[in-house]
Amino acid sequence: MSRYSEARETYAGLGVDTELALKQLASIPVSLHCWQGDDVRGFENGGADLSGGIQTTGNYPGRARNPGELMEDLSFALQEIPGSRRLNLHASYLVTQKPVERNQIEPEHYQAWVDFAKEHHLGLDFNPTFFSSPMVKDNLTLSSPDGNVRRYWIEHGKRCRRVAESFAGQLGGHSLCNVWIPDGYKDVPADRLGPRLRLKESLDQIFEEEMPHVIDSVESKTFGIGLESFTVGSNEFYAYYAARHPGVYQLMDTGHYHPTEMVSEKLSALLCYAKYVPLHVSRPVRWDSDHVVTLTDELKELAKEIVRAKATDRVLIGLDFFDASINRIAAWIIGARNMQKALLIALLEPGNAMEEMQDGCRFTRLLACQEELKTLDWGAVWEEFLARAGMDGSLSWLSKVEDYEKQVLAKRR
Ligand code: RNT
Ligand code: ZN
Fold it and tell me: Distance from the CA of 10 to the center of ligand 1, in angstroms?
């Protein structure tokens, strides 16, 4: 009997249908972030130094330096990522002959990405880029006291929503358009309310225009590097903003809370109220360090929450990490596959039976069952998933990445 057939029988004994789990896993989209490929530099003027209180650390050779290289690297990574994929772009990844100001961008500047998405059967998500720009003044954008600065960034936000709408128009479905701004202060501010009121007013203008196929979101944060004391767009600020603005959702990044706060624990609270909960799945190590997503207990718990809530179509899973110290293509593959592995582990739980144990206060049985599940052979089901997607198991993908590194990446100087 094959390893998969054996696992299928064991799981069936617990009332879990592995075939159903495989089918469900294949249908859950994971949005791959373009910015792991080039250390979040983008294509404006050959790539900008990263600012905004976020950082890539490391100097691994071979980062993509232009649209052609990034697309080539992404195509490579996509060959090793099974399941349903989307691509998440930042506005700074526009493909143009001449430089274009952020407040001048048009859908046509992203046409190359639409063509790429069509070729690879990807939906496209989008993010205005409110960082790495000389128009970020004193770390402020939408909350700046300077009206010219605010107007510039409001225009950028509006135009980005039009770009996202054009993505959905050309590719079908929706496009998530997520607003994250770096705005904050290094030291204790004299006025916290003023910046927040200005941000509220700026967002109202950005979201004015109806965009029927755009899912708008706002991403909160606790602090940034050099912005340790105050973040304008905090959790409470955006939670209320989203609650009061139908069609705008709060995006939760797993690295944006205090170290003992877990997004897995927060998710169900939002699901009581919000139609959609977009996620940035990341891995904070001591700070919002954006390490590659690994198969941690928290990742498994997060996936379990999504699956148990039957919210795989309401939680919009996106990845957000940027490690410049390892092969960037491997980083994509490892992170994306780990997200999918966590989802598979969750799909292989006898969820209803465990819910009954909880509601029946049979906590000993529940604990025993949860622990038992940990050593079952979900790896066999994962290998089957890869095989059905035409991919090899084990580390054969890595040998291919290593060859690509030698042939292609090493020549980028
Ligand atoms: C920053 C946010 C934001 C960025 C990307 C590049 O802390 O997480 O989502 O990582 O937009
Ligand atoms: Zn994020």
Answer: 41
